[in-house]
Amino acid sequence: MLLKLVLDTNTLVSAFFWEGNEAELLRKIEQGKARLYITGDILSEIEQVIKRSKFNDVMGKANLTPDQIIQKIVSFSHLVIAPQLNIKVCRDEKDNKLLECAQSAKASYLVSGDDDLLSLKEYEKIPIIRASEMLKLLE
Prior knowledge:
Helix content: 40-55%
CATH topology: Rossmann fold
Number of helices: 8
CATH superfamily: 5'-nuclease
Strand content: 15-25%
CATH architecture: 3-Layer(aba) Sandwich
Shape: globular
Oligomer: single chain
Radius of gyration: 14 Å
């Protein structure tokens, strides 16, 4: 059975703009080696982040627009329509929506590089790990 993954915003943004573990993980998802789950809230956050002026240069180099990135993410994601669970676990409140998505999707893993999330180690028996660790599990 395919692993169900939730990737945080920074992991997805990094995957599009820089070569590394995040980009490799995204390729594996695109190849159907794992499934990506996402919510409308997470998509909104990604859109806000990639529209920041600091990403203009890197977006130009990648020859992508914010709309193209969002469309691409949507094309290989499973959209989770979930009730607001009002989880209040994370120091950074914005990260709670990732836990909500992971819980609602019954995700196998939440992938993040964020120390606030990683420090939890797991949530509702869903391990929270780095992209590098996820790649090892997919090999």
